[in-house]
Amino acid sequence: MSYINIKFFILILGSGFLACLPACKSSLVRYSQEKPNVIVILTDDQGWGDLSFHGNTNLNTPNIDRLAASGTSFDRFYVCPVCSPTRAELLTGRYHPRMGVCSTSEGGERMDADETTIADIFKASGYATAAFGKWHSGMQHPYHPNARGFDEYYGFCSGHWGHYFSPMLEHNGKIVTGNGFIIDDLTDHAIDFIETNRDNPFFLYIPYNTPHGPMQVPDVYWDRHKDATLQMQHRDPEKEDVMFTRAALAMCENIDYNVGRIMDKLEEAELEENTIVLFLCDNGPNSWRWNEGMKGRKGSTDEGGVRSPLFMRWKGVIEDGMEIQEIAAAIDLLPTLADMAGIAMDGTRPLDGISLKPMILGEESPDPDRIIFSHWAGRVSARSQQYRLDHEGQLFNMADDPGQYSNIAEEYPEITQKMMQARDEWEQSVLAELPKEDERPFPIGYPGSRYTQIPARDGVAHGNIVRSNRWPNCSYYTNWTSIDDKITWDVEVPESGNFQVTLYYTCPEQDIGSAFQLSFNESSIRGEISEAHDPPLVGMEEDRVERHNSYVKDFKPLKLPVMHLEKGTGELTLQALDVQGTQVMDFRLLMFERIN
User: Contact at 8 Å (CB) between 303 and 100?
Assistant: First the structure.
């Protein structure tokens, strides 16, 4: 146990000392009697090094730094190499292969429907629950956030989004238009939720979607960085894209501004002493930039790809400025927060994570033999307190060689063998649960849900039709030039019903008049493009650096006839019946609204 943990252990148990600290004593009494609120702030593609708290002088993040200084900071905290697996592990306390999370798009990001989430657990204990931001764990019920324990949801369910200024979003399944820069907008909703529930216990999840690309940020942040000299760079400077780094740093400063707004709201509402606040990232940085010399970035199972900050504040309960060196991971957050809130988890599936509460409160030492595993794209690395075994079987002493420069596997064969055996056992018991192919259909009209989105992202194009970009998440289909072309989805209708169908399209004036059919098993409806809608692509005006993913545009909703769907599985098919011009349309989305 570290010196600072022993000190806090004495602070908690020493009744004579507590008598001299009535404010602290009242907080500890409240800890045992009241349900604490919980706020989890998760950022997207922000690396461990993208904070001034960690010594990066390229940017200034005073609000996040203040959060870290006024609570516990975990120095060796680990997430997954990419977005959706981290979200799954945070939400369930279980390693992502156990629940079918095998990719970041086209349905592979979904947690199995029978998993229990942290929101389910807190909601069952009387908490109001909300999520505002990038969900990335399934778009249709029962994978949608409203079906995973969240009473309120505002944001987007896809893996990334194509525009950050007043974009198309959803509110509890219904398509809406955002208000201003997306991170500011999400924070507005979070603040409103806090105000509405200031007298009731709440669980609030804020998964911000920056600094994931496209690299868009308001001028006030960009202007501070666009011409700035980078005082600290990646360990291989020739790999670094300086303009991309500048944009990422500007986006991180906007995140910091909004974290400050949330903290200010808690203070204004007098909720600081009854609210646990967490801040973490979902993977390593999305470019080669300063990250304290660690090896790897987003997508890597090396230290730089999976090490994240974790700051946890509970004013009056968690000691200010406490630093925990012991390893911990995203799988630990559910059991930790439930334990700190006094919530029993009877009946849930066995967890891979452990409660960090004893460590945070200095009550006991962690397991010195613990190993945390990182997996992505067939690569598995293992991290103990002192060593990392990488996916190639190389061993590194992370205490002496945090940059993973020197392979010591031959020098320490016993340690290497022990780590390899642990990794092999994990692969055989955990990774073996991941199916080789994701054969889960996309549900339409799941019981209890009103809206079902079926986007281009999840479809399969046939014939001449192509995606607007090779990254599916925020793409649309174009080049629909023949009646032989079609788009299909493998779907399941779990409950028969009638649905109002709305199709989102664009089409220039010269191509109007094309007819098409939407069919599922024995049901079909017909539609026609009778009104031109040909907006320009957007995004390049706000992009600070050239993007790799798709540009977007404003797609027009077209209401189709009511469609009756019988319970069953099959292929949902969108196919042209007649092409009047050079193309049918550009296609973005189908929305099914249950009307019976």
Answer: no
> What is the arithmetic mean of pLDDT over 320-340?
97
Residue 540 CB: number of other CB atoms within 10 A?
11
Are 590 and 574 in contact by the 8 Å Cβ rule? The answer is yes
Of 201, 202, 180, nearest in space to 190 by CA: 202
How much of the chain, in percent, has pLDDT values that exceed 70?
94
Can you tell me the mean pLDDT for 56-72?
98
What is the DSSP code (8-state) at residue 538? B
Give 286-327 pLDDT, tens digit per residue: 999 999 999 999 999 999 999 999 999 999 999 999 999 999
pTM of the shown model: 0.94
Report the alpha-carbon distance of residue 337 to residue 204 in Å, rounded. 12
The closest alpha carbon to 465, from 478, 483, 482, belongs to: 478
- What H or E segment, with its residue span, contains residue 395? strand 395-397
* Sequence-separated (6 or more) residues with CB below 8 Å from residue 392: none
Burial of 502 (0-12, 13-18, 19+ CB in 10 A): middle
Cβ proximity of 191 and 203 under 8 Å: no
Provide the pLDDT for residue 8: 34
Is 22 buried (19+), middle (13-18) or exposed (0-12) by CB count in 10 A? exposed
Nearest residue to 459 via CA among 515, 498, 499, 503 = 503
pLDDT at 526 (0 to 100) = 98
End-to-end CA distance of the chain: 61
Q: How confident is the model at residue 213 (pLDDT cuts 50, 70, 90)?
A: very high
143/157 Cα distance (integer angstroms): 10
Task: Please state, in angstroms and rounded to a whole number, the distance separating the CA atoms of residues 391 and 44.
Answer: 24
As a whole number of angstroms, the distance between CA 71 and CA 340 comes to: 14
Q: How far apart are CA 329 and CA 67, in angstroms?
A: 19
Asked if 148 and 91 touch (Cβ cutoff 8 Å), the reply is yes
CA 281/CA 90 separation, integer angstroms = 11
Largest CA distance in the chain: 86
- Taking only the tens place, the pLDDT of each residue in 448-481 is 999 999 999 999 999 999 999 999 999 999 999 9
pLDDT score of 546 = 96
Backbone angles phi, psi at 447, to 5 degrees: -50, 130
CA dihedral in degrees (107, 111, 114, 118; nearest 10)? Answer: -140
- Torsion angle (degrees, nearest 10) of CA 92, 95, 97, 102: 70
DSSP H or E stretch at residue 8: helix 3-13
Listed residue (76, 185, 160, 150) closest to 539, CA to CA:
160
Total count of residues recorded for the chain = 596
Domains defined for the chain, CATH in brackets: 1-33 (no CATH), 37-314+321-353 (3.40.720.10), 373-433 (3.30.1120), 442-594 (2.60.120.260)
Whole-number Cα distances in Å, 200 to 120, 259, 261, 275, 342? 17, 22, 20, 11, 16
Q: In terms of C-beta density within 10 A (0-12 exposed, 13-18 middle, 19 or more buried), how is residue 41 classed? A: buried
